[in-house]
Amino acid sequence: MKNLILILFISLTFKHLNAQVSVITDQFSTNLTKKDLNFSGDRKLFAIAVNDQHTKNYIVVSKNKRGAKNDILSIDKFTKKKGKIFEKTFTTQFTHKTNLSIAFVQDKMMYKDIDKDGHMEFMYIVKKNKDGMNSPLTKVIGLIVYKNKAYNLWIDASDNFKTTHFSKKFKELPEHISTEFINFWDSIRKK
């Protein structure tokens, strides 16, 4: 009986592993530098390796220098091409007139192959403060990356963070994709 249970457990485990669409791994992302991948910012805040069924990818969040006149947060996705070469397949930036006003929220993100095409979609959260990190929060943005294009939704201080607003491009997302991300957005604490 024990052997039967063990065999059943092992077969279910392998079945689950084979069904896995994507793998999120640290690989060399912890020690990643601009020499490894030419990400947009001057300093790396966060990097992660995301391997889906068809591609190996790195996503890097970086910022411009501390003490700069303005604040720029960049999000770049690099996809492995031939050999060991990684090509930048997505990039976007968030800017603010005051340094240290934009924050990347590392503990609220979503990675999922919603449309089951073997490629990973993801959502990151970015916060903007009025005039530096100790000033009042003015906006919380959800960045969705689907097929290497950006779609945004947000809440802001103008209506006490009650209404979710959507970018014009958001309506281009297939309904089942937008619904999945909106459900995630609605489930997280944003302020």
| Strand order in the largest sheet | 1-2-3-4-5
Shape: globular
Q: What is the overall pLDDT average?
A: 88
Name the beta content range. Answer: 35-45%
Report the sheet with the most strands, covering strand number, pairing sense and barrel closure: 5 strands, antiparallel
Number of contiguous helices: 2
The count of domains is: 1
Structural class based on helices, strands and sheet pairing: alpha+beta
> What separation lies between the terminal Cα atoms?
52 Å
**H/E element order:** HEEEEEEEEEEH
**Unreliable segments of 5+ consecutive residues:** 2-21
Radius of gyration: 19 Å
Q: Total strand count, please?
A: 10
Oligomer: single chain
- Share of residues in helices: 10-25%
Could you explain how this protein is built, in words?
The protein is of the alpha+beta class and 191 residues long. It has one domain. 16% of the residues lie in helices and 42% in strands. It contains two helices and ten strands, in the order H-E-E-E-E-E-E-E-E-E-E-H. It has a five-stranded antiparallel beta sheet with strand order 1-2-3-4-5, with no helix packed on it. A five-stranded antiparallel beta sheet has the order 6-7-8-9-10, covered by helices on one side. Strand 8 and strand 9 (149-156) form a beta hairpin. The longest helix has 18 residues, at 2-19. The radius of gyration is 19 Å and the shape is globular. The N and C termini lie far apart (52 Å). The model is unreliable at 2-21 (pLDDT under 50).
Give the tags.
191 residues, alpha+beta, five-stranded antiparallel beta sheet, 2 helices, 10 strands, disordered N terminus
